[in-house]
Amino acid sequence: MANPGLPVPAHPLLRALILLGAPGAGKGTQAKEVARIYDVPHLSTGDMFREHVARGTELGSRAKPIMESGKLVPDEIVLGMVEERVARKDCAAGFVLDGFPRTLPQAERLEEILGRLPLRRALAVNLLVDEEAIVRRIASRRTCKSCGAIYSAGAKMPRVEAVCDACGGPIVQRPDDREDVVRQRLATYNEQTRPVVEFYRRRSQLLELDGSKDIAAVQHELLALLARLHQQ
Ligand code: AP5
Ligand code: MG
Predict the structure, then answer these.
(1) Among candidates 62, 66, 105, 52, which has minimal Cα distance to 188?
(2) Which CATH number describes the domain made up of 15-40+93-231?
(3) E-state strands within 122-181
(4) Crossing angle of the two packed helices 131-140 and 179-188, in degrees rounded to 10
(5) Rounded distance between C-alpha atoms, residue 130 and residue 153, angstroms
(6) Taking the domains of the chain in order of start, what are their residue ranges?
(7) Active site members
């Protein structure tokens, strides 16, 4: 059930909604809720890689050291994984992308993939948060090792200490949330992902939101924006 006071969607999503923003901007937090409210899949490439690492797959063993260094997994690995996922039936009414695309080649390839699907034009929403707030958020983030649910000392904590509300799994700190790795992740973002924001701006597919407000306020604005867009 949606939270009281939130705009309830009177229409299906029918598009790829792309959440952009620096590490810690709130992409995962918002993507999960929007996907739940619209009843479409939430596709997080970071979560997909963490699942591979947890399962000990070959892809996971290639991704793990790269993720822990704060750099990006090579495009061809990411693209293969996303292309396979988007082709599944449950993506037919739209989906929410979180952490993808992160490089220009990924953005260009995504356009080709989407061109083959009967969906409206993709929309990218960039969540804007300054770097100081990001470092604070990431330092206090905890994640469920089993289902990926996100918690934070400042925003949302589990009812029982270190136990996930959603699945009962253990809550841990992500290995790439150490301060030195966070700094590298921010540098990688500035170098490789900022051009993706400009890619969508040039194509008039970009909207920007102040991601520094509290979680509920950002969610309210994001849902209101999607509702307005549908009326146009
Ligand atoms: P990924 O998992 O995507 O990590 P990231 O982009 O660095 O993003 P984060 O998950 O840190 O931030 P978020 O924006 O989701 O914030 P969250 O909602 O959690 O990727 C990890 C790694 O995988 C990459 O470094 C790379 O190696 C690899 N990878 C993944 N995708 C790839 C790709 N496409 N290409 C190549 N490599 C790829 O929020 C953060 C914290 O803040 C939480 O504690 C939350 O509770 C809190 N919070 C959220 N919103 C608010 C708010 N409004 N106010 C206060 N607190 C808030
Ligand atoms: Mg995330």
Answers:
(1) 66
(2) 3.40.50.300
(3) 123-128, 141-144, 150-152, 171-172
(4) 140
(5) 19
(6) 15-40+93-231
(7) 27, 102, 141, 174, 185
CB 189 within 8 A of CB 21: no
For residue 23, give every residue at least 6 positions away whose Cβ sits within 8 Å of its Cβ, in sequence order, or none.
134, 138, 182, 185, 186, 189
Tens digit of each residue's pLDDT (9 = 90 or more) over 37-61: 999 999 999 999 999 999 999 999 9
Site to probe by mutation for ligand 1, drawn from 20, 73, 126 as the one with most ligand atoms within 8 Å of Cβ, is 73
**pLDDT tens-digit readout, 88-135:** 999 999 999 999 999 999 999 999 999 999 999 999 999 999 999 999
Ligand 1 near 29 CB (within 6 A): yes
In this structure, are residues 167 and 144 in contact, taking their beta carbons and an 8 Å threshold?
Answer: yes
Ligand nearest, relative to CA of residue 52: 1
Residue 93: CA count within 13 A, CB half-sphere: 10
Give the integer Cα–Cα distance in Å for 229 and 224.
9
